[in-house]
Amino acid sequence: MKPVDLAKKLRREPVFDPAALDRGKAVLMAAIGQDVEPRRRPTIVPQVPYQDVGAALAFLERAFGFREILTTRLVGEGGVIGHALVEFGDGVIGIGTQGAHGAISPKRGGIESQYISVYVADVDAHHQQALAAGSRIASGPHDDFGGVRAYEALDLEGHRWRFHNFSRPLVRTDRRITPPVTPRP
C-alpha cells in the first residue's frame, strides 16, 4: 500500500486502534525508507570535457535523454558551471570544463579522441529523439554483427556517442580469459 493511500485510510477511521496506528506507522516508515535509500555509486566515471558545460548539459538531456544529478553541480565565479554528473540508466558520466586534467573538447582540438557507448532499449526511437534535438548523425541506425542495432551521433562540441542495444544478456562471471603466451624465439 502506498503511503498516501495509507494516510487516507487512517484519516477515514473514526476511532484509531493504537496497534493499528503502530502497524500503519511501521508500513509508512518502511515505504519512506525505500524511497530515500541511497543508490550504489559507480566505481568508474568517465569525464567528458566541454567548452560550455551548461549548453552541454541542456543538449545531452534534450537530444540523448541524459538526466543531470543536480546535487553534483559545481558552480564557479560568475555562475559558470564547472562540473556536473549526468546519468542514463545505471551509468554516470562527468561533464566538466575543458582544460581540467589536460582534457580538451573535440571542438577545440579538432579531432575526436574517443567515443562513448550507451545502451538504449529502442535504437530507432532514440535516433529520432536525437535528430529532433539537432544532433549531427555520424552513422544512421544499422544492424551490426551479432544482432546489434546501433547508430552514432556527434554532440554540440563533436564528442562521438554510439547508441546501441544489447544483442544478448550480459552475464557476470569470475572467470577471466587468459591470453595465450607466445614463446620467445
Write the layout of secondary structure elements.
Layout: H1 3-12, H2 18-35, E1 47-50, H3 53-64, E2 67-75, E3 81-88, E4 91-97, H4 106-109, E5 115-119, H5 123-132, E6 136-143, E7 149-154, E8 160-164
How would you describe what is shown here?
There is one protein chain. By secondary structure, this protein is α/β, with parallel strands linked by helices. The protein has two domains: 33 residues; 118 residues, 2,3-Dihydroxybiphenyl 1,2-Dioxygenase, domain 1 (Roll), CATH 3.10.180.10. Helices cover 29% and strands 28% of the residues. A hairpin with a 5-residue loop joins strand 6 and strand 7. The longest helix has 18 residues. The N and C termini lie far apart (71 Å). The model has no long low-confidence stretch (mean pLDDT 80).
